[in-house]
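Risk register update: the risk of archive-format incompatibility is retired. Evidence:
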Amino acid sequence: MARLRRQIQSRGAYIVTARVAGGKRLLGHDWAARFLMFTLVYFRHALSFRLFGFVILPDHFHAVIQPSQYATISKIMMKIKGTYAHRYNKLAGRSGRFWDPRFLDEILQDAAEIGEKLEDMHMNPVRLGLAPHPGSYPYSSYGFLFRAARVEIVDDLRKGVRGVPAYLR
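Archived output:
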């Protein structure tokens, strides 16, 4: 069966999901989740894309990304997944495939839809019983978005985008 071609939208944002191969819970360790956070932020700068939010769960992660002129969503995900897998395997003394080969993506049409996806994404740890509140889950952008002293880990959707959703006001 032929694979569907990835739909590309210039200047569009995507919600992406990458799953650990075999559903293993390899991202459930503190060091592994924090290392993936570092990898996301590193490539945010190296490839000049906008990262509006993320959540790292034990067996997969979600991120809302707006590619730049320098890299497509496919190249961004290839760099994140490839670099992370190589270094994780080296640090953990393991070999073999880390990620499922493909990643899921959905094009987001506007700021309101981005806000809805961020809200839903940040609730995942609560729905899975990993945290009582999105702000108490350490492996997500929720705390960076809503902390009084903001750290520039994620891009602020409120800057330069019309129609800011109520979730982010």
